[in-house]
């Protein structure tokens, strides 16, 4: 596809920047990752049962433990860090930005990214949903009920089992959200994969889709990923310093 260069009196055209983020972007906010060297799944393999759909639905004790885990989750105390703020700053600069996140913490939105520009592949921890009638309500309200003595609060609408509005192991991703993310990956001219091991499918495949459709793929992650060889640039520096510098450069030189 041939692109027409802007005339001298026109500002340079700003490319669509897609940013796929994983747990690594939120570790500076005090939220531990899952699969890194010190990740939760490596430290406590049993913890994975708490977010596995069949185990959660079939065992009341698993649900009670899950609610206790949510009460203690650092996600509700966490604040956006320099990396989240840099993403929001890039969007405010006039650059077309879409965030595709594997995280459920809502920190991109709290940093100032418009909700409509954030695709939450794995849902959000800030809402709960009924597994029977699909009514949604706030996690804050559900946790208040747990604190008041309900160890496994039921849906107030139909009495069904409540769960976090996140995608548990054994559940499918929302096909509409995934389809929109796929469209963004195909349209992006710059695609950043930040703080993700790129091992969880189908989210990880978005990096490959973007590269196949001509995007400049940049990977910012502490550990190697299966997509490193497709990347135009791989950055191993700490995300909190590397990403703001990288995004500032994109804002200043949008056509690069």
Automatic annotation (TrEMBL):
Molecular functions per Gene Ontology? histone deacetylase activity, NAD-dependent; metal ion binding; NAD+ binding
Check the record and name the InterPro entries matching this protein.
DHS-like_NAD/FAD-binding_dom (IPR029035), NAD-dep_sirtuin_deacylases (IPR050134), Sirtuin (IPR003000), Sirtuin_cat_small_dom_sf (IPR026591), Ssirtuin_cat_dom (IPR026590)
E.C. numbers: 2.3.1.286
Q: Which domain of life is it from?
A: Bacteria
| Keywords from the named record | Metal-binding, NAD, Transferase, Zinc
Q: Which residues form the Deacetylase sirtuin-type domain?
A: 1-256
- Enzyme class, broadest EC rank: transferase
Family annotation (Gene3D superfamilies): SIR2/SIRT2 'Small Domain, TPP-binding domain
The protein here is known as protein acetyllysine N-acetyltransferase
**Organism whose genome encodes this protein:** Streptomyces lydicamycinicus
Catalytic residue list: 122
Q: Where does Zn(2+) bind?
A: 130, 133, 155, 158
């Amino acid at each position: 596809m041939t692109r027409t260069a802007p005339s001298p009196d026109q500002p340079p055209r700003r490319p669509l920047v897609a940013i796929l983020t994983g747990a690594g972007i939120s570790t500076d906010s005090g939220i531990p990752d899952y699969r890194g060297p010190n990740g939760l799944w490596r430290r406590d393999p049993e913890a994975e049962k708490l977010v596995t759909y069949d185990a959660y639905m079939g065992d009341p004790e698993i649900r009670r433990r899950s609610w206790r885990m949510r009460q203690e989750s650092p996600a509700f105390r966490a604040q956006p860090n320099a990396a989240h703020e840099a993403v929001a700053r890039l969007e405010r600069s006039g650059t077309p930005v879409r965030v595709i996140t594997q995280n459920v913490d809502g920190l991109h939105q709290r940093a100032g990214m418009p909700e409509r520009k954030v695709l939450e592949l794995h849902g959000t921890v800030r809402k709960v949903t009924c597994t029977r009638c699909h009514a949604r309500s706030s996690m804050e309200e559900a946790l208040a009920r747990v604190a008041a003595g309900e160890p496994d609060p039921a849906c107030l609408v139909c009495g069904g089992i409540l769960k976090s509005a996140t995608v548990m192991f054994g559940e499918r991703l929302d096909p509409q959200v995934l389809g929109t993310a796929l469209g963004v990956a195909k349209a992006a001219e710059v695609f950043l994969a930040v703080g993700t091991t790129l091992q969880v499918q189908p989210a990880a495949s978005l990096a490959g889709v973007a590269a196949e459709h001509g995007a400049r793929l940049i990977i910012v992650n502490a550990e190697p990923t299966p997509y490193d060889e497709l990347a135009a640039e791989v950055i191993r520096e700490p995300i909190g310093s590397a990403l703001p510098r990288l995004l500032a450069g994109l804002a200043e030189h949008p056509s690069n």
